[in-house]
Structures are given as C-alpha cells and as structure tokens.
Amino acid sequence: MIYENKDQLKNGCADVIQVDGSDVRILDESKLKSVLIDDLIYTAVFRPDKATQEAACWLIHRTAAALGIMSASIQPLYEAMGRGEVKGFTVPAINIRAITYDFAQAVFRAAIKGKVGPVIFEIARSEIDYTLQKPLEYTCAITAAAIKTGYHGPIFLQGDHFQVNAKKFAADPVKETQAVKNLIWEAIEAGFYNIDIDTSTLVDLSKTTIKEQQQVNYSLAAELTTMIRDLEPEGITISVGGEIGEVGGKNSTVEELQTFMEGYLEELKRDDQKLTPISKISVQTGTTHGGVPLADGSVAKVKIDFDVLEKLSEVARANYGLAGAVQHGASTLSDEAFDKFPAVKTAEIHLATGFQNMIYDSTIFPKELREKIYKYLKNKCKEEWKEKDTEEQFIYKTRKKGFGPFKLEMWHLPADIRNKLGAELEKKFSFIFGKLKVNSTQEIVNKYIHPVDVPLELPAALKG
Q1: Potential cystine with 201: which of 10, 74, 111, 166 (Cβ 3.0-4.6 Å)?
Q2: Helix ranges restricted to H, 362-414
Q3: What is the DSSP letter of 36?
Q4: At residue 464, does pLDDT exceed 80?
Q5: Is the pLDDT of residue 11 over 90?
Q6: Which of 42, 15, 11 is nearest to 30 (CA)?
Q7: Rounded to two decimals, what is the model's pTM?
Q8: Where are the domains of the chain?
C-alpha cells in the first residue's frame, strides 16, 4: 500500500520498526521484509505528499543502516587494484531504468547466491530525466531491495555519465557546467559515493595536437573533481571516474590516456596538491550505447578491440595507479564476450540496454502494455523518427523513453509477472557475474570496504 499521510505511515511502522533518536530499531524483521518495506518504497516513489515521502525515505535509510546496509565508495578497492593487490575480476556496473525495486532484488539475489562482492548500481544523467528517477528515489529503491532480499553489506551507488552536453556548453559553458555541478551535489546528498564525470563530449578532434583536443576535457574534469572533494562526507573518499573518448566515437589511444592524465593531474595541483584523483578511466574500444539496431530491430554484432582495452588498462595502472580502464556499452554484446573482460584486466564494465531489452521482449511482459507504450512513443517521439529508419529501428532507439511515463503501470504490474521478470533477470545476472569472475569476492570487499554511517536529520513528520 501507499501511505497517504504521516499518521498512516507511523501506524504502519508500529510493532515493526521504531524510531529511536536518529536511528531505527527493528522490532519484527520478518514483517519488515514481507510487508513494510514494500509499503515504504511505494510511498517514497509514488506519494505526492512531500513530507510523507521524505519520512518514508528516511525510514528506509535508517532501517537499512540498522541491518548493516550502507552506501559506500568503491575507492579503497580500486586503489588496491591499482597497486596490484587485487586482480582477476571485472566489476559490473548496472543501470536500472525500469521496475527498479524488483530489478534490484534480482541483482541482490544473484549476488547473494554467488557470494559476489563488488556490484555497482548506477544511473546516468540522461536516464534520470527519461526514467523519472531522481537520485534519492533511486537510492531508496536500491536500498529497499537490499532489505527485502536479506542482503547485508555495502551498496555501491554511482552517477554514470554525469555528462556535459556539448551543444549546451558551447552556447553557455557556465550554465551547463553548473547544471552538472548541481546534479553532483544532489547525487552525493542522496548517497552516491561513486561519480563518473563525463566531459569527453568536449574533446575536439579538429585540433592539431592531442593536448589541444583533450584540454577542455581534462581541465573541466579536474574542476568537477575538486568540487566533489569539497562535498564528500567526512570519512568518505568518493570514487571518481574520468573519460577520454566519447562512447560511439573513435577508439581511444594510449597517447590520449597519457595526455589526459598528465593534464588532469597538473590541473589538480593548482587547487590542492593532496587532492585524490580519479580511480579509473572510461575509454572507447568499439561499442555504442544501446547497440546499433538493424532494419528488423535486431542488434548488429559489435567487435571490441580487446588489445586496446588491455593496453589502456595496463598503462592506467602502471603509470597512474588507477584500477584500470572502464568499458561502456557492453550489455548487448554476445555472451561469449564477457569472460574476455577479466582476461584483459578491465576494471569495470557498464551494462544497461541489454536488460531493458530483456524486459520489453520477454513473453511475460504484458503485450497490451507494450503496445500502449509503443503507441505513445510513435506520437511523443515522432520527431526522432529518421526517414531511413524502419519502425522497428525507431522503436528500439526510443523505447527507453517509455519507462518514465509508464513507471506507475510497470511498478504496479501483478506480482506474479514482476516475479517472473525478476527470475529471468536474476538468471542473466548470475551468468554475467560468473563470466566477470566476481563470484566468491565478498571477502575481498569486506577487507577493503568499510562503509561510513552518514547521519541524516530526522524529518519533521517523524518528530514527536
């Protein structure tokens, strides 16, 4: 159910959890997992009353903390990877665009079964807009899913592609930069302690030298890193990622990586020589976000240059102490490709569209709802329909934009449908975790990651 007001919320929590100062005491963990956590997250996401919504979010966070579930930075683990102390696996970073609460439960179930340590939950700047998921809502949904499934330990929440829009930057660089800074601030407040800065959109390949091409990229990346260091909570060093090549563009080179890092580190020194730099670097090796749809709606096979990926990861670690290179746009690759990432010592891969496709294309997903969404897209996004595109290509490219407008319908699908979709996703996650060799890595995470309990002010609705 969705609590209508603060009094109904308090009554629903009675005998299950109890507010104790700035903490929560759990009175009935079984009822918390079976009933209350569902009610709290649906209230946090769908209740328009802001006071009740904020109270539900606070209760989710503090209840999770009481169970040992806290948002954390992956920085110490990545530093250990940079030193060569930890190796042999690639960290999956998963973007959740739809039915986030059920989706995240599938991830946690697979992680629990495989004793998986590092799994990142992320959302990009663009996804926040078209999925209608603000950072705080996203945090609450992931945290609630952890409670629901019985997961205990750190949660890695990441701002993916906190990207500077090149056209908007050209028109008004101050305004566009401030928009990204505002999003970073909002995300950190919501518990995102991993932020991927993406200023690679500002790389200008028309310039003569690589330094000139990368200059705005590394300068602005350093400026945003400085801001993040000013905002990070006490006791937490936020893991920051940089990017040298826009996904879908030309493949990255060692020279670009070196030029970016040297310029970036020099820029950081101008502000504070002790500032912690980025922990990883995103590169382009042949993929495209979402894949390339063919005329029949299927996705073209992509060939990744694993030699380039391996070399870039090696240079990133050896020369700069980074965890390694990061691969974007990997979710639509063929199954046999995934075990190659740990083989070439890739630090992290980002996975999104493939799971979106699983949801839409599942025989379990209601046909009527799918047709309703597609009809909406044909009307709402018709200006995006290129003349050369078939209907299948248009739908494939735009259907990610159906998740926000139809979020209510998707979250309220019958439980048996959501459970079956979750089971399909869980099976896929288990497969990917095995391929990336993150199974049986819990002890590694426990060794390096020690989450900090960041205090939250008690909402007015819960006082008294």
Answers
A1: 166
A2: 367-380, 391-398, 407-411
A3: I
A4: no
A5: yes
A6: 15
A7: 0.94
A8: 6-67, 75-359+415-448
